[in-house]
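User: Round two. Same drill as before: sequence, then structure, for each protein.

Assistant: Same drill it is. First protein:
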Amino acid sequence: MGTIVKIQALKGFKDILPQEVALWRQLEEKARQVFERFTCEEIRLPILEETELFARSIGEATDIVEKEMYTFVDKKVTMRPEATASLLRAYIEHGLHVVKPVQRLFTIGPMFRHERPQKGRLRQFHQLDVEVLGSQHPRVDAELMAMAATLLDELSIATSLEINSLGCPACRPLYREKLLLFIEGCKDSLCADCRRRSVVNPLRVLDCKVASCRAQVEEAPSLVEHLCAECAEHFAQVRGGLEQLGIAHKVNKFMVRGLDYYCRTTFEFVTGDLGAQAAVGAGGRYDGLIESLGGPKGCPGIGFAMGMERLVLLMQQRQGEKAADPGIDLFIAAMGEMAVARGFALGHELRRLGRSVAMDYEGRSLKSQMKQANKAGARYALIIGDDELAAGRGQLRPMDGEEQRTVELDAAALATCF
């Protein structure tokens, strides 16, 4: 027999173990509750899409498309690196704009990018994604941010909201010229990436995380100060809407997006509770994207995504290493083969009546089985032995220490006891 090789998960891919799943379910259920309160509907999307979809939506010159996507070159399909493009493809393909002029959609699931794994960021990662399609009203922007803030509040996750406006195709070219002039004056002091970005997409220079670059652009012209009248009014109304809803925020002039179709409102929810300040959710308006993918002309859109790994890390910090074990309703402690056989059938009947039941089939002692009941978080233990079988009645013991009582070995009657 050859050497047995221990196979482990791929780098950047992580198993979510049973003791962690309770937190994930708590997050997913809370997200669905909040999103549905804001009349968002769930949509479920495929993991594989045509590579061309992401090349067109994200941009062929971006790091995501050039370096990070998991692509099957021979089939020209790609595992989705983000959810927006897939959701918009479904929106266009199925004519959802005809069904309802304004669509509010959300999706939850895994995304895939081949990038350096780090805390809260993996190569297979999970996102909550929400998109509102068909309206460019500033109150929609404010309401979307309020929805994200509501979810974070109800998860007891402390964040701050930062917003900016990226203007529109009418006002951004003039700002770009002024920014290029500024960058030219400090270009020699910028990192290699920023020098490259200054040619391809100068806005990205403002977003560099290198400390020396951030210091250089501290006095860079602000896009917010160069908005056209319409964009300035839109941004003022977005801020007014946030203030009306009591959503605290601040303007971050360095917040940009790397893609030309992003316009006007952009925002991030950031936290300092993961070490370095990190975004747990980010979004923005993309009024030109739907049309560029073959959708209805002039159809606006805005959305955001939240990284679930980071949210779970923050929930763990608040709650401890895992969520409270939900436990089970009943543990059946049976002694003897006949008692085990009766408990086996009884447990199944109780499960069909909606109760959660566990039992031991290995013939362990009563003491050992009661330890198992405790470990399983059982609310009650039902003790069945030869005497109980003969009488047709078992001993129901509350695991919180209350006095046990005699009960009929009948599923319907037992189900009323807990």
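Second protein:
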Amino acid sequence: MEQKSAFESFELEVNSEIKGFLKETSKWAYFLSILGFVGIGLMVLGGLWLSFYTGMNQFGGDTAYGLGYSTGVGLVYVLLALIYFFPLLYLFKFAKNMKMALSSENNDNFKSAFLNLKSHYKFIGIFTIAIIGLYILILFGAVLGASFF
């Protein structure tokens, strides 16, 4: 006879107090995701403005340095906006599914909400690790470069 561990037989109780916490959390997640989407829109507009308007007007329109620099910075803004779109989408889906799960007491929506929350944090975690790795590489390159000069 196979014996179950204490964790396997443990069942979570989602009482009214916890439902209230989850409802408030979903409202804040919804607010932050909408605010994030607005920020992404502004980043894309700013990136496009940097890419086209600044490069063309500030440096006379045909200066290779001006066009290349502003275009590069503008594309970085657009790229960062694209990268940050996905965790915001996961956060938005969490909020939407949690709201539906709590109003209709639907377990599928409840499960989907936490799946999206997990994906949000997983994406942010992997992105954070990548950025820390990039910082280490930049620091290593700076120290290595400084030793040659």
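The chain has a mean pLDDT of 87.

User: Perfect.
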